[in-house]
Model the fold of this input.
Amino acid sequence: MCFPVFNFYHMRKIFIVLILFFSVSILFAQQDTSLSKKFLNEDLVLDVNYYKWLNYPQSITLKNNCSEINVTAYFFLTGKEKNITVAMGGNIDAVNIYGNFFITKDSAEIPTLTTIPDSLNYSKNKLTVAYIGMPLEIRFKTNNNIRKKNFKFTIGANIGYNLTAYRKYIGDNFFEDSQEKIKVKLYDMPGISKVTGSLYVKMFYDKFGLNFRYNFTPFFNGVTDDIVKVNSFSAGLSVIIF
Done:
């Protein structure tokens, strides 16, 4: 049994538009040497991270497979060939949080987290939140070595806006308190902050590196006191696609 609540087509359209934009950029860049230098060097970066909430209630258990995927396209405010450069851009960021919780409202209609009852058997309970953001960063890089490769260090800040959030659940039917198996996507996720801010650092050798991101804004807004201070960090691998 499935309970469709919202159509996710608008998110698919955003990803399709970005893919078309990047494809057109590559085609133009390949046809002109000057454009090639502009577009095909460190302008599209993929981050694949482990994601973790901080300051969440002890009653909540998070699984170790919580993740974050971030794709960022950059343009440079100063010359990209210099050892110190400034860049900004746009990104899409998606986090997947697995745990034993529901986002609900208490008796006063204030959003809160509720643990899933032990009586419910489930195979998946995932909260997904997608953001569109704008990063600003400073990059430091060494001169190329004999292999024409270098080290890069980046420090930056990102402001994001919450595009959508949904929960995917597979397990016992909690609507009717029965053991009938259901698969649902629920898009009414109250209390998730619309705006997020983060600081990050990245370290590269050639096109591969590590990154660490700390979200200094709360994950929730207008919620109960026990989750008002929940924020997050993430860490993982970065790849310069082109």
